[in-house]
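Supplementary Methods, section 5.1.

A reviewer requested that the exact input to the structure prediction be made available. We therefore reproduce it here, unchanged from the version used in the analyses.
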Amino acid sequence: MTAAKGGIVPQEEIGNVATPPFVRLPSLTSAFQRRATRASQLAAQQKPLEGFLLFVSALARAQHAALGKLPAGTLPGQQEIFERRKRGAAALASDGLWSDPTWTVALDAILESMAPVEKPEAAEAARRRLVGMAVPERQELARRVLDFDLSAEERALTPYVAAALQVHATRMASLIDAQDIGPEEVTSLCPVCGSPPVASLLHTMGNLQNTRFLSCGLCGSEWHCVRVKCSNCASTKGITYQVIEGQSDAVRAETCDECKTYLKIISLEKEPDAEAVIDDLATLGLDILVSEAEWQRLAPNPLLTFGDA
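The structure derived from this sequence is encoded token-by-token as follows.
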């Protein structure tokens, strides 16, 4: 593993010549299709992770199909969103995500789609367990998935539950007016749904040139965060970029010596097809090396069984 120190980035390099938007909301027509395509692409390139990435690709296709089966959602009103954002809360209440039975409709659709997909026996057993689970038990499970608080025997359930919650949260996020979200003070949590970022993306096009956005692991929204700044504690000191020696530096781990956490940063210039959730999953080796150096990951990838990285 090699490291490069962070430093002051000139204004013209940060991408603020043309002001970037505070938040970028997900597109329902492409979000999960892009994820499925990227997982299949990387599976062909990374034989050690091929089976896992093909499973995730199938899961993303099931997510896209589930969108068409969701009942109409009820968004909070503009004034409610304004009041929530004014006090620093996310636009969507987190308890509204797991308690709304809409996400269980997505779960049933995903579980049905995933039935014929080749998978480890533990993953199939988890799928069957969820099929027979009552809605109240599912909702309690979803609450703990969002809190990253599952027992060891429940961890195999994580990808399915998280995938269904992603479908519901992404659909809700896509219906919000971005103008109602902010701008507000940037925090380490998504201003739309309150979840932590799964990675950050360094954009390359138009007024997004060289601009960093944190990418939500749940609803897929992105929110602007200046570069060379810890996404957890906001420190600009002790920022270092870790890569695996001899491998591509398109995905780096941005580590902070102040709070000892890290978050991956993905360059879309070097990997134009990159997708935050998938490219994070495909670079588990970087997680292992950085963790061994005693930095803690800011939050797990929602689609990864806890303890696997």
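The radius of gyration is 19 Å. These observations are discussed further in the main text.
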